[in-house]
Amino acid sequence: MMGYILVILLYAVFLIGFGTFMSRKVKTAEDFFVGGRKLGPALLFVTLVAPNIGAGSTVGVAGLGFKSGISAVWWITASAIGTFILAFVIGPIIWGIAKKHNFYTLGDYFEYRYNKNFRGLISLLMFIGTIAIFAGQLMGIAWILSAIADISKNWGILIGAIVIILYFRAGGLLSAAYVNMIEVFVKLAGFLIAIPFVLNFVGGWQGLQIKAAANLANTAATSSYFSLTGMGTGAIIGFFLMLTPSFFLSPALIGKVYSARNKATVRFSTLLCGLVMLAFAVVPVLLGMAAYAAFPDLPQRDLALPYVMKECMPFWASAIALAAIFSAEISAADAVLYMITASFSNDLYKTFIDPSINDEKLLKISRMVTVVVGIIGVVLAGMLPNVISALSIFYSLMSVSLTAPLLFGLFSKRASAASAFWSAGSGVLLVVALQIFNNGNGFGIFNAQSVAIIFSILVMVVCNAVNRRRAGC
Question: Mean pLDDT score of the chain, rounded to an integer?
Answer without folding.
Answer: 83
